[in-house]
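User: Let's play a game. I give you a shape written as tokens, and you guess the letters that built it. Ready? Here's round one.
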């Protein structure tokens, strides 16, 4: 006759040691953090750029209603002041022009031919509605991103006295 072992009760669970439970908790927390970081990076893949130039917007075929930053030079002769605090102007990188509408106070140093970065909503075509306008802070400074974009497109001449410096680093001191 063979003996049959009694079946284990269904309520009996495998007991984990404290070390095994801690390792499982750490592993689960690590997996959740890895997944969260991956989702954040995936969501931010196109918005990590500080701003887009007019040519980049045209090349990427940005969808209307997209919130973004637009940077470049204010086109000469394009500033039109409307009733109240409404202002319309064009931003260019000398290849593409985007028309910007803005309602509010412009920075004191805003003027034609200077570098600006605007933040707002792309409306399609070559129209942009800005919520804020950031202008250079003195006559020797241009936002590094604007200067880099102009250099990349070949419109920046470092020796040109009319071209503002792209850095706010102080000049090295002369040796005594």
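Assistant: Ready! My guess for every position:
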């Amino acid at each position: 006759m063979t003996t049959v072992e009694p079946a284990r009760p269904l309520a009996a669970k495998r007991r984990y040691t404290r070390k095994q439970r801690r390792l499982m908790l750490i592993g689960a927390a690590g997996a959740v953090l890895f997944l969260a970081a991956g989702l954040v990076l995936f969501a931010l893949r196109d918005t990590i750029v500080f701003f887009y130039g007019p040519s980049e917007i045209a090349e990427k075929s940005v969808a209307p209603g997209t919130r973004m930053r637009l940077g470049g030079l204010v086109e000469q002769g394009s500033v039109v002041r409307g009733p109240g605090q409404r202002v319309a102007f064009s931003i260019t990188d000398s290849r593409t022009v985007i028309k910007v509408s803005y309602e509010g106070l412009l920075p004191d140093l805003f003027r034609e031919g200077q570098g600006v970065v605007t933040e707002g909503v792309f409306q399609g075509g070559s129209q942009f509605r800005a919520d804020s306008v950031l202008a250079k802070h003195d006559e020797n400074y241009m936002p590094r991103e604007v200067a880099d974009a102009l250099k990349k497109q070949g419109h920046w001449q470092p020796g040109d006295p009319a071209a503002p410096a792209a850095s706010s680093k102080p000049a090295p001191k002369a040796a005594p």
